[in-house]
Amino acid sequence: MISLLQEHFGELQAGEAGDAREGLEAVMREPWDVAVVDISMPGRSGLELIQDIRRERPETPILVVSSQSEEDYALRAMKAGAAGYISKQSAADILVTAVERVITGRRFISAALAERLAGAVSGDSPVTSHESLSNRELQVLRLIASGQTIKEISADLALSEKTVATYRSRISEKMGLSSNVDLTRYAMQNHLVE
Fold first, then answer.
1. Smallest Cα–Cα separation from 57: which of 33, 79, 31, 95?
2. Which of the residues 48, 77, 103, 112 has an alpha carbon 20 to 30 A from that of 95?
3. What's the structural domain count of the chain?
């Protein structure tokens, strides 16, 4: 990605971070023209990083480039404060256009997402069960579907086991799925886990 952007923009100062904490530290150290964030990160999610950047550096445009489904995460990312969302599969084709758009203060969404949003506004698009989940609940669902136990999830997210169990209960209630097998099957069918 960096070499593609250097090709187009010439001299380019870029930084990289291994997780959300490092990403926020980099954004806090100096101003950036754009922050490129992934949804899947070790520890805190990219959605939480987006919210942190918006709170600490509201003038910094955020572009999400992620392998996570645009259908499932783009709207969440935009609500969290991202200016654009592209999938890693299409990144090479539209990355430069997306960066140009967000650094000029505009938003970038793909044609497929624009069509979906138009369908949602007109009531033509069906709503999936996981769209009712909060960002944290979706994160917990994905970890459950990845085979992690409540204890492992609590360690990964720095939450108490009781809090994770509460999220698990809310997920089951909202989605009408009672077992981890059902949750995992749903997550796999809806491409929420890799």
1. 31
2. 48
3. 2
Out of 76, 94, 122, pick the residue that ends a domain: 122
Residue ranges making up the domain that contains 73: 2-122
Name the residue type at position 144. I
Q: Is residue 116 part of a domain?
A: yes
Measured CA to CA, the distance from residue 80 to residue 77 in angstroms comes to 5
Nearest to 78, CA basis, from 32, 119, 135, 122 = 135
- Look up the pTM and report it: 0.70
Report residue 47 as tokens: 């959605």
pLDDT in tens, 151-188: 999 998 888 999 999 999 999 988 888 899 999 998 88
Looking at 122, 153, 179, the residue that finishes a domain is: 122
Confidence check: pLDDT of 15 > 90: no
149 with 117, same domain: the answer is no
